[in-house]
Design a protein that fits this description.
Layout lengths: L15 E4 L25 E3 L8 H6 L5 E4 L8 E16 L11 E2 L7 E4 L8 H11 L6 E4 L3 H9 L4 E5 L9 E7 L4 E9 L5 H16 L2 H6 L10 H6 L1
Parallel strand pairs: 1-2, 1-3, 5-9, 6-7, 6-8
Antiparallel strand pairs: 3-10, 4-8, 4-9, 4-10
């Protein structure tokens, strides 16, 4: 473990990175990719918890998890949360429906009166609550809300014409049998957040932070297509890495 359990309390081992299962499909493609690994010792490992955001701080505090990528900020005083980027939201629509006849950005109000599928069903709070709060704030009222456990189930139901779903833009590659339309509006965003233990200065955490900064500086095509303009960390690069 990096930091608490590995760096100061135990022998070297792979860093443990957690990604909450809320549509983080393009969060860590490069930082954990073998050709980009530049640190000494074992390559950082990745452990995925099935969308259990509230358990991430506990696992991290107990030394089981070194860092986590999620969409919720935590109020645990022992956890540092940094918003890396704001990802656009898209509406997943059944093919053949009226809304699927166009590809232009879709206003949230167009979803009023439709059956909405949200995920994950549990534990809460989760990405589902982000979406429900967004709709409530914009006075968008679905005819029905169906909660499911994971995005794969949600998109399967959309493909079966059982409702619509709001997903992060990077998840559009998951199924080709539904139509995706960007949601119009300045608030139709979901943050991607890096969480780690406060005071953790392990080389693995520093390495991953450096790779994140480098990746965003390269501005890969998937990033520009799925996200609002990144708040450039160049001026604060050393501060972000040391945070």
């Amino acid at each position: 473990m990096a930091g608490l359990s590995r760096g100061s309390c135990g022998p070297p081992g792979p860093a443990r990175a957690d990604g909450a299962g809320a549509g983080l499909h393009q969060v860590r493609p490069d930082p954990l990719d073998p050709p980009r690994h530049r640190g000494p010792g074992p390559r950082p490992g990745a452990e995925h918890a099935p969308g259990q955001a509230p358990r991430i701080p506990a696992g991290r505090g107990e030394g089981r998890i070194d860092l986590g990528f999620g969409r919720l900020k935590h109020n645990d005083p022992n956890v540092v949360s940094t918003v890396l980027r704001e990802e656009r939201l898209v509406a997943a629509l059944p093919q053949g429906t009226v809304l699927a006849q166009d590809i232009a950005p879709l206003p949230l109000t167009a979803l009023s009166g439709l059956k909405l599928i949200v995920y994950p069903k549990e534990p809460r709070p989760s990405y589902a609550d982000q979406i429900l709060t967004l709709l409530q704030d914009e006075d968008v009222r679905p005819s029905e809300v169906l909660e499911v456990r994971e995005i794969q189930t949600a998109l399967g139901l959309v493909a079966a014409d059982s409702g619509v779903c709001i997903i992060p833009a990077s998840a559009r590659q998951m199924r080709s049998d539904v139509l995706y339309r960007l949601i119009d509006g300045p608030r139709a965003l979901s943050p991607v957040i890096l969480n780690h233990r406060i005071g953790d200065t392990s080389r693995y955490l520093v390495l991953i932070k450096r790779l994140i900064v480098d990746m965003y500086a390269e501005n890969p095509a998937w990033f520009e297509a799925n996200n609002v303009p990144f708040r450039n960390h160049d001026a604060d690069k050393s501060k972000f890495i040391k945070k």
